Amino acid sequence: MKAQSTNTTTHSESSVQNNFIRQIIAEDLKTNKNEGQVVTRFPPEPNGYLHIGHAKSICLNFGIASEHKGGQCYLRFDDTNPSKEDIEYVESIKADVHWLGYDWENRLRHSSDYFERLHEYAIALIKMGKAYVCSLTTEQIKEHRGTLREPGKNSPYRERTIEENLELFARMKAGEFADGEQVLRAKIDMASPNINMRDPIIYRVKNVAHHKTGNKWCIYPMYDFTHCLSDAIEGITHSLCTLEFEDHRPLYDWTLNTLNTQSHPQQIEFARLSLKYMVMSKRKLYELVENNHVSGWDDPRMPTLVGMRRRGYTPEAIRDFCDCIGITKNDTQIEMGVLENCIRSDLDPKTARVMAVLNPLRVVIENYPEDQVEYFDAPYHPKEANMGSRQVPFSQVLYIEQDDFLEEPPKKFFRLAPGREVRLRYAYFLTCQSVVKDDKGEIVELRCTYDPETRGGSNPPDGRKVKGTIHWVSEAHAVTAEIRLYDRLFNQPNPGAGGTDFTKVLNPNSVEILTNSKVEPSLANAQASNRYQFERQGYFCVDNVDSSEKALVFNRIVTLRDSWAKIEKGNMNKKS
Ligand code: ATP
Ligand code: MG
User: Fold this and answer.
1) Is 56 in the pocket of ligand 1 (CB under 6 A)?
2) pLDDT tens, residue by residue, 435-478
3) Which alpha helices (DSSP H) does 379-485 contain, by range?
């Protein structure tokens, strides 16, 4: 059986980056290490929603497995901290992995599936004299640990006999102790330069129910002990993790060597993904949600996969992005523009073009018959004829974009202005004759005329040309919609750098909500999650939470051009 991405995967295998991890694996296959097997895993902790950083790990692990004959990838929930975990997260993580286009088939596991075996391994360590029950308080353990410069001090309980340790560990398991009263520690080296090797805690008392095992256990294994053994139990060949685990690798190897496990996976570290103008740690995302800085985990401004999905991002684009940024050992911050370019390239060939006026300005065509309606055939895509076309109604009163009119236009403004002529996309040439204002001086509507000889937007017989083409919708046929324009969530490229408060640099204008936008009638039946290109405006997606047939809501996925490059340049100019 093969762990494979489903047929929604579009990237060809040849386009996949040949990164250093793939090179290591290729080398291992050459030497027939692991009997030619490639087994990986994606090990999320079910304590939050997945974000695009996790997508990098998912694409790497599932991707690598799918590239090799017989390759396998496990989805393993690292559920060793019952107080922070929840079934809600488990379900959302599964949905997100599927949405990205990957399938674990029959390889869904939980670390808690192995609690029994992990407990046996712990007892084995005790019997070898390699683990002991320590009765120091949490504070004291911290004090004894030493610092980066100073070695730690041995615990006074370090020399307990094997019998004593077995008995105490059994009493820990039997529920005789309060949280933190006793811990089981590996007996390694309190003077090790690597703090992770200074008799790390491998089991602790936690009198809490677990979402999988209920009240069966009141002792829970620690991450470092659990992770390597779970990898070994599953026969993982390459255990790919992020750089912060580099210092844990000696403990990973010590545990597997000491217990002499059947298999000994190779841990390989790579750099985490971080995006400019974004935060990525679950703790920070949790804080954004808890303190209502965003509307939820699926707020379209969040870097979570549920948020991106709601915003309208496609799994193909996210996979392309993960391919494009590659896998390295260097921590770098990726520009938002890279992600946005992937979205644009994915959406461009497959998204219908339609007309929507975000900020409407009323236009009355004085020489057009009041009760006449004409229909113009408008293809959904300029290049993809198979996407078909629709009939766009045209009538005496239209809406155009407020931005497409200026009373006093500067030189290079080729759109509408008093006395100027433009082309209405698919329809006619239009000339602005006068501007109607209310008593406050605000523009209420434009009075215009059209040229009947330009039907379909063609040039008139006199050879007159216009430079500007603008989009429009017919007032009588338009559908009112709410449109949400999203921008970066933070004002700073590196929010929270140096321990500063990241919530202080939230962008107050990260969402602009337009409640009176007018979209063409073909969108009346737009379904949740449908995506469109609103001509000249960007890519938009029907919101999958708030939109309904009665009240359409669109999210802007991305603008048509990169506005980030400009922002970056602006910042650089400010600095210099
Ligand atoms: P966070 O720091 O965001 O809370 P985490 O590492 O605690 O993340 P886990 O659920 O433990 O989250 O992560 C599951 C897997 O995803 C791990 O193997 C982890 O290394 C990987 N991962 C998490 N964040 C990133 C990231 N930003 N880039 C790449 N991989 C990541
Ligand atoms: Mg983690």
Assistant:
1) yes
2) 999 999 999 999 999 999 999 999 999 999 999 999 999 999 99
3) none
Strand partners, 405: 416
pLDDT digits (tens, 9 = 90+) for 226-272: 999 999 999 999 999 999 999 999 999 999 999 999 999 999 999 99
Segments of the chain assigned to CATH 3.40.50.620: 13-274
Under DSSP, the state recorded for 509 is T
- Mean pLDDT for the stretch of residues 168-180: 98
Q: Is 199 left (phi over 0), alpha (psi -120 to 50) or beta?
A: left
* 292 burial level (CB within 10 Å; 0-12, 13-18, 19+): exposed
CA distances from 161 to 31, 154, 164, 185, 495 (A): 44, 15, 5, 14, 51
Q: Is 221 in the pocket of ligand 1 (CB under 6 A)?
A: no
> Which atom of ligand 1 lies nearest, measured to the CA of 50?
10
H helices present in 105-211, as ranges? 115-127, 138-144, 162-173
pLDDT tens by residue, 129-142: 999 999 999 999 99
User: Ligand 1 pocket test: which of 50, 57, 96 has the largest number of ligand atoms within 8 Å of its C-beta?
Assistant: 57
**Residues 6 or more apart in contact with residue 272 via CB below 8 angstroms:** 53, 56, 242, 243, 244, 280, 331
Question: Does residue 307 have its Cβ closer than 6 Å to ligand 1?
Answer: no
**Sequence letter at residue 513:** I
Distance 219 CA to ligand 2 centre (A): 20
Q: Indicate whether residue 43 lines ligand 1 (CB < 6 A).
A: yes
With residue 473 as reference, give the H or E element that holds it: strand 472-474
- The one-letter amino acid at 96: D
Residues assigned a catalytic role: 45, 272, 282
**CATH 2.40.240.10 in the chain, residue ranges:** 354-478
Residue 374 in tokens: 């004409």
For ligand 1, atom 9, the nearest C-alpha belongs to 44
- Torsion sign across C-alpha atoms 132, 136, 142, 145: negative
* Residue/partner pairs of 116-122 with CB below 8 Å, 24 or more apart: 117/229, 117/233, 118/221, 118/225, 118/226, 118/229, 119/173, 119/219, 119/221, 121/225, 121/229, 121/259, 122/169, 122/184, 122/202, 122/203, 122/221, 122/225
CATH number of the 13-274 domain = 3.40.50.620
d(CA 196, CA 234): 24
Measured CA distances, 273 to 54, 193, 270, 507 (Å): 8, 28, 9, 22
- Asked whether the CA dihedral 295, 296, 298, 300 is positive or negative, the reply is positive
**CB distance 318 to 55 below 8 Å:** yes
Return d(Cα 19, Cα 326) in angstroms, integer: 7
Per-residue tokens: 254: 């010590």
Ramachandran area for residue 296 (φ above 0: left; ψ -120 to 50: alpha; else beta):
left
Which ligand 1 atom minimizes the distance to the CA of 272? 28
CATH number at 354-478: 2.40.240.10
DSSP state of 98: H
Which atom, in ligand 1's list, is nearest to the CA of 281?
3
pLDDT at 572 over 60: no
